[in-house]
Amino acid sequence: ILFIRSSSLSEPQEAHDQNHYNEDIGEQPILFKTLSKDLNTIQKEILRKEYDQQVKIFNTKVQQIRIDIQLDSYLLEKSDISTDLSLNKVPSDKVPSFHHSRFFYDMKAENFGAEKGAPPVCLVCYKSTHVKSDCPELSLPKLIDLPSVSKNWINIISNICGRVMGICVYIYFIFFLIVFMFPDQCKLSAEDIEKRNKILNYLQNAFEKCYPLCSVHGSGSAYNGFGFRQSDLDVCVLLKHQTEELNIIILEKLFRIIQSEPQKFRDIELVRDARVPIIRCIDNQFNIEVDLSVNNALAVENTRLLKTYTEIDFRVSQLGYMLKHLVKICDIGDASKGTLSSYAYINMVIHFLQQIQPPVLPILQQLNDDPSNKNGMIRQSMESNVYFYDNLPELGEVWVNKNGPNTLTTGELWIEFLRCYTEQFDYEKNVVTIRQFEPLDRYKKGWFNKTIAIEDPFNLTHNLADKLSQKNWTLIRLVFIQARQRFGTECKDRVIQGSDIDWIQDYLFDRNVLLLENPTKLDKANKQTAEPLQSLMGIRIDPKYHQS
């Protein structure tokens, strides 16, 4: 029923007096006579004007509802839906009722709490004082030119690299040499590896009862040459061509097998929502956390690839340990927390060592004993080509560096690594890749995120930085910038003695300095001016100097 002007209405006899008309609201239109009862002449005239205006608005709204209902009925007739769905077959208590007040709203700004318009909201910190482009959490200190440093300082940095990894440390001074023997601080010992191998053997025997032809492999940092003593044990169970079961079904069976061994494992958890579903548990005997996946063959191949690179040059492992130590101190090395995985960081190290001139590392995925035999550079696994050159005794025959070997110390390489990723690398254009020497355009990969892009060497559609937020990427860049200045500037405040090795390491890896945890430091750093940056050792990245 549509409202018309009340002057033309033939008002029916009301069943209720004024004290009861509120009960009819929402059931039928309230007549002007009911509303104006007990009002004087002036009050009635005022109400009449407002009543007529609201009736006109209400009629317009209801007419639109009528049109919508007609359209819905037409669509129902054109569809396969039975007309039994018509409203006359729906119980009255199921049909929504509309009160005219639902159609009235004064569209004034103050009703939205925005007299001056919608407030700006930053998509990074969610504060309304600025927009994303002006967010202080995305600001970085300006790079300052690094001064020249002494050979003694470079030697100290090199020795810190060795100390972090856990080897003998040699401190050179002008007139004498001091040798420090340190226990393994970070690197996995033979005993640590043996413990992990025992866990693998235990799992192999347990799983063979259900899958006789399965093979259990260790992967990840514990086996790729970059493992800490406290590193988790990544386990991959391969059942290639042995079953048609889905991996998640196999994983659930293995989960029940592990659950049946409470004397061996505790805190057993099946993580289904990970990119690669895993079983997570802790070995009771050795107190080592275990992450187990099924048919993740690429993880095994990635482990082999990284391990092979560490066997080419000892400096690879030392730089990898330095970077992992740095990101661990600054808490920026956990992909589950929106930063980068240690695997991604190691790819950054290898990429740098392949690109620096002269190169420290070859591109193993581009080498072949017989360059004319392209088929020899294909080895399939999980629909990916996992080929890389692994015949290291013959490496010198297939990888000839015309500019001679790279003779920089680990300390010099570490500083140049920090400079590479703060001064030289074009994040907006290029991808970090270790499978080819030629620059890899990120737009050809379709990776448009505003952070670093790191290509998995085998799964070429996987960006190892795809979960990295812009805020965390800014934090990583901040750490690199601060580390560049910290390691690239010789300490002048103290005369360093041979016994100061602990103090030196604490000084270089000072978390408060690396993270600029005092906000005033960032403002101060941004006010510093810098001259054009020059390479500390005069090293540049230039394709024409590289021979693969």
UniProtKB/TrEMBL annotation:
One of its GO terms (molecular function) is metal ion binding. InterPro entries: MTPAP-like_central, NT_sf, PAP_assoc. Residues 184-310 form the Poly(A) RNA polymerase mitochondrial-like central palm domain. It holds the Pfam family PAP_assoc. Keywords: Magnesium, Membrane, Metal-binding, Transferase, Transmembrane, Transmembrane helix. The chain crosses the membrane at residues 160-182. Signal peptide: none annotated. The keyword Phosphoprotein does not apply. CDD domains: NT_PAP_TUTase. The keyword Nucleotide-binding does not apply. Residues 411-462 form the PAP-associated domain. Its cofactor is Mn(2+); Mg(2+). GO terms for biological process: RNA 3'-end processing. This is Uncharacterized protein.
